[in-house]
Write a structure and sequence with these properties.
alpha/beta; Urease, subunit C, domain 1; 23 strands; disordered C terminus
């Protein structure tokens, strides 16, 4: 047997096997972990060509499996406009616009990223700025009268409602916004004492609709932005110790293509396993069924791809705001920040389409959020027509579940992805611990032997976690979980 290429020794190797043992050393050959154990046992297998790294007592642990990553969206934060993180005054924001106007051709857009700081310290209230107010069109008109200026709103789950965005006068004129313009769904057009728009918009939709309605003239993300966002997002996740991703929402074909291009260039340093996001709000049933038939050949069964990029199954949709879905569907195929199509459908429609997906061998993912019963009842109805119990269908965004629902999930053989960190953040954001107390009971689910995947520790990727299977270096497998891997 050839000698190992790499040995990490004199450390704490956290194996996370069934006994949770900690050993001193780990050896790697051809990108795969081949052994863990004592220093002496592994070092004697070294050859002159083996790279030896003395950990000096430092720890090595398995890579994180993130079952709700949106990694491309993380990368888009570097492509969405001029960054203004860390600026907390109107004066500073005006100065950024002034400098941008000096290097931007007249008539062009000057687009800024949202106010505040990532990941969750974005500005939602005027008192968070030194002047105690949001900037207005008058502030930006003074330094960029010949440019359309816009500060973007955040993707809603990054912050607290409302989500402010700001335009200048030229941007308002291009958008056709006057004192008589009706506000889009769940959006407030802030007005002054005379009833004129101040150019501040306060959005309450978690999925923002302004760039699909009044601000549809705003420059949109290009395909090159998508490709770069995947590269940047993957780098950010790897830097945090994440090595495998499962994108339960699914990805649009455009974003899947961006992942593929990065993989082909050697710029995808982690695994991505994703279903295809279905445009169920934009397409009627006939067009969707046509898509099912097309995708069954490449995304049906175990899907297509390799250990680093695999496309399997579809995300059909689920419980969501139907009005928002209709607004965004009108802009198909643009997906703005999302990376997936926004979906909302009745349970009756979900069952009808789900039956056809099951007949074609497509693994279905369903967005649950706060209505697990929607998904469970739909899956049970589909299972009566076409057995899905061995197909490992997925429910994502599972925020709350009763003991009885967990038992039903086990009976259906579904995978549940949950976001534990979300509950703590929402408790802080809402100044209440009620959401955290109602969090999905992962311990109970594990005890019930329900297949559970959570963010950021685990994900339903079929190629990882099989007992006895060797894993690429840096992505050590939890070897005792063969029954619970998707």
């Amino acid at each position: 047997m050839p000698p190992p290429d790499l040995i990490l020794h004199n450390g704490k190797i956290i194996t996370l096997d069934q006994s949770s043992k900690i050993v001193q050393a780990i050896s790697v050959r051809a990108g795969q972990v081949v052994a863990v154990g004592d220093d002496a046992a592994l070092l004697k297998e070294a050859a002159p060509t083996t790279q030896l790294i003395d950990l000096a007592g430092r720890s090595v642990l398995p890579g994180f499996f993130d079952a709700h990553p949106h990694a491309d969206r993380e990368g888009l934060k570097a492509r969405g406009g001029i960054p203004i993180a860390g600026l907390h005054s109107v004066a500073d924001l005006v100065d950024v616009v002034k400098r941008a106007a000096q290097t931007t051709a007249a008539g062009e857009w000057i687009v800024l990223m949202p106010m505040g700081e990532p990941p969750h310290e974005y500005i939602s209230r005027p008192e968070q700025l030194i002047e105690g107010r949001f900037p207005t069109r008058h502030d930006f008109d003074a330094v960029a009268p010949d440019h359309a200026v816009y500060i973007r709103a955040v993707w809603g789950w990054w912050s607290r409602r409302p989500f402010p965005s700001v335009a200048n006068s030229l941007a308002l004129r291009r958008a056709g916004v006057t004192r008589d313009t009706p506000a889009p769904h769940n959006v407030e057009i802030v007005k002054d004492a005379r009833g004129e728009p101040t150019s501040v918009f306060l959005e309450k939709n978690f999925v923002p609709v302004l760039e699909y309605t009044l601000l549809r003239d705003l420059p949109r993300f290009k395909y090159s932005d998508r490709v770069e966002s995947v590269r940047l997002g993957a780098r950010a996740y790897v830097a945090a110790g994440t090595t495998s991703l499962y994108e339960g929402h699914g990805l649009t074909p455009t974003v899947i293509r961006a992942y593929r291009e990065n993989a082909e260039r050697g710029a995808l340093p982690l695994r991505m396993h994703t279903p295809v996001s279905m445009p169920s709000a934009a397409f009627d049933d006939k067009r969707l069924l046509d898509l099912f038939y097309h995708y069954a050949g490449v995304a049906g069964g175990r899907g297509r791809g390799d250990d680093f990029l695999r496309v399997e199954g579809i995300n059909l949709g689920g419980h969501a705001d139907g009005t928002v879905a209709d607004i965004i569907a009108a802009g198909y195929p643009y997906d703005q920040w999302a990376g997936h199509f926004y979906q909302a459908m009745t349970q009756e429609r979900f069952v009808k389409l789900g039956i056809e997906a099951a007949r074609l061998g497509l693994r279905v993912n369903c967005v649950v959020s706060r209505d697990l019963e929607y998904a469970l009842t739909a899956y049970e109805a589909i299972d009566k027509e076409v057995r899905i119990r061995d197909r490992r269908w997925v429910v994502i965004h599972v925020n709350q579940a009763s003991d009885a629902q967990i038992r039903r999930m086990k009976a259906l053989g579904v995978i549940a992805t949950v976001v534990p960190g979300f509950f703590g953040w929402r408790a802080i954001a809402t100044a209440s611990i009620s959401s955290a107390k109602r969090a999905f009971p992962s311990d109970a689910c594990s005890m019930a032997a329900c297949r559970l995947r959570s963010r950021p520790m685990e994900c339903p990727i079929r190629c990882c976690g099989r007992r006895g299977r060797r894993s690429p270096a840096g992505t050590m497998t939890v070897s005792g979980n063969s029954e619970t891997v998707g």
